[in-house]
Amino acid sequence: MPVTTDDEIREKYLERAIRELNQLTRDLQSCPHCPRGNLMPVLGSGHPQADVFMLKYQPRPSEVEEGVAFYGRAGGALMKSLKRLQIDPLAVYGTLCVKCPVSDPTLADPACVERILEELAIVQPKIVVVMGEEALEVLNDLDVPLARVVEQLPGTIQQLTPSIDALYVPNIDEALDEESAKRAFWHAFKVLGDWYADLPPY
Fold first, then answer.
1. CB within 10 Å: which end of the chain, N or C, has fewer?
2. Number of Cβ atoms within 10 Å of the Cβ of 194
3. Residue 167 phi, psi dihedral angles, 5° rounding
4. Parallel, antiparallel, or unpaired: how do β-strands 45-46 and 157-161 relate?
5. Using one digit for the tens of pLDDT, what is the confidence trace for 92-137?
6. How many CB atoms lie within 10 A of CB 189?
């Protein structure tokens, strides 16, 4: 009887995660709930089994244009920050609470916002980096199995579930232009570097 190696098992899990994310993409693209007209939803991007799961509240124009979360200035700033912290960008997945490019994010269908639960279940990250108060509110309102409430404590590693940590940071979109906001974001975000360095090797 052939022996299954760890690599083969990992490969199977990765294939399944890719399949499930592709299905989620199809579901989002054919979702009838949001009043988005002919604009496509803004999809999550990154590794299907990332350790780090970035969660932002709503898309900016550049993200709407490309249909990809964290496309544009926020993504560029994040890449620089990850590089500084020696975090492999391939270990990161980023998504939005409000995936539909609606003029007012409160118009987003609650069932659509709840799709974050599906993304968390597929990616199975080790930490969720929650960006800004609105994203935090959404995360705390979701029915994440075994979840604790995440407090608005910038730069403090908290426990979301028994297997997932959480880190609250200011919203990166609001930290791009103003110097003190930039510093506040970096001060909270850099904690991720130590957390990542302490991850046990596979």
1. N
2. 10
3. -135, 120
4. unpaired
5. 999 999 998 877 888 788 888 899 999 999 999 999 999 999 999 9
6. 24
Contacts of 54 (CB under 8 A, 6+ apart): 46, 70, 78, 92, 93, 94, 95, 128, 129, 131
Q: Name the residue among 173, 174, 182 with its Cα closest to residue 62.
A: 173
For 180, other C-beta atoms within 10 Å of its C-beta total 8
**Segment 20-46, tens digit of pLDDT:** 988 988 888 887 776 666 678 899 999
- From the number of C-beta atoms within 10 Å of its C-beta (0-12, 13-18, 19+), residue 142 rates as middle
Distance between CA 194 and CA 179 in Å, rounded?
A: 24
In DSSP terms, 123 is beta-bridged to none
Identify whether the C-beta of residue 43 lies closer than 8 Å to the C-beta of residue 70: no
pTM of the predicted model as reported, rounded to 2 decimal places = 0.91
- How far is residue 74's CA from residue 146's CA, in Å, rounded to a whole number? 31
What tokens does 85 get? Answer: 């912290």
